Amino acid sequence: MSHDEFSCRQIILESLVEYEDGSMPETERMRLEAHLSHCPPCVVFIKSYRATGRTLRMLKPKDIPCNLAEAVMNFVRERCKKSS
Amino acid sequence: MAEDQNASDLELVRKIKGGDDQAFREMVERYHARVYSLSYGVLHNAEDAEEATQDAFLTLYRKIDTFDESRKFFSWFYRVALNAAYSRARRRRPGVTVPIDDFVPRLKGGDGQGSPEFAAWVDGIEDETISRELAQRAEDFIQELPPAYRDVIWMVDVEEMKPADVAETLEISLAALKSRLHRARLAVRERLAEVASARNPAGAAEGERRAAP
């Protein structure tokens, strides 16, 4: 492997965030993609990294208690009444 | 978060400082779901998250005069909300946290050129049903992360907040945020891969073979 190529370790531990969020400079991105073109394990790793992101997005609480805003208002009123 | 959102928040803040209860109600309407969700990320329990949300708004009401208007309101208030949630978390039995390095991917060789070890779980995780099952496990794994990593991954990947907004809320640099986020993702990915390969040993063996030519 020549010095200007990415290693698997470098990609996984250092470069993936910039690659994924699009902030990686064009030349570096091209070098990284050249690595990916001959490294199937890294391609699978990146797929699994993205799949992790998709999985995490499913965790967002969907059921906000329906009377929460009212409960908050009552709680604050009650506490402020006590302390005044 | 958009500048006009902050301007609109500031308008409400000033009214609340002036004693306008209707403005406070509007602030509750605007932020209660996000604060609940953020609290849930710390506490992983609906009842505790609801109580932490109430605590956060009580602090907002009482301490609004201390808010420095040169900062963005949401970053101040999310910080208040995180503190409220952690304060409640400390009253419970402490959970087990696992050092982040325990889950950074194991790389072969140590010479920087080895292929990573991983299981062939990607095909499985792309299936909606399996994905939901794994999501439940991911919630457990996030809870085991050290808080600095847990907050970041919850806010960016679960809540889908902008990284720059999260960095501002946590008062860390964007570079530090990205580093924490990446390590947290690697940790969760590693644990999910373990679960997925336990479900599908044949796939795992295939993954090992492909990963370590």
SSE run of chain A:
HHHH
**CATH class categorisation of the largest domain in chain B:** Mainly Alpha
Distance between the termini of chain B: 46 Å
Envelope shape of chain B: elongated
Number of strands of chain B: 0
What percent of residues of chain B are in strands?
A: under 5%
| CATH architecture field of the largest domain in chain B | Orthogonal Bundle
Helix content of chain B: over 70%
Estimate percent helicity of chain A: over 70%
Give the overall pLDDT of chain A as a whole number: 84
Query: Average pLDDT of chain B, to the nearest integer?
Result: 81
Helices and strands of chain A: which structural class? mainly alpha
Largest sheet of chain A: none
Overview features:
heterodimer, A: 84 residues, mainly alpha, B: mainly alpha, Rna Polymerase Sigma Factor, Chain: A, 10 helices, disordered C terminus
General description of the model:
The complex is a heterodimer of chains A (84) and B (213). With 84 residues, chain A is mostly helical. Helices cover 71% and strands 0% of the residues of chain A. Chain A has helices at residues 8-21, 26-37, 40-57, 68-83. Chain B has 213 residues and is an all-alpha fold. Chain B has 2 domains: 3-91, Rna Polymerase Sigma Factor, Chain: A (Orthogonal Bundle), CATH 1.10.1740; 100-211, Winged helix-like DNA-binding domain superfamily/Winged helix DNA-binding domain (Arc Repressor Mutant, subunit A, Orthogonal Bundle). Chain B is 72% helix and 0% strand. Chain B is built from 10 helices and no strands. Chain B has helices at 3-17, 21-43, 46-63, 73-91, 122-125, 128-144, 147-158, 163-170, 174-199, 201-211. In chain B, helix 8 (163-170) crosses helix 9. The interface between A and B is large, with 43 and 60 residues.
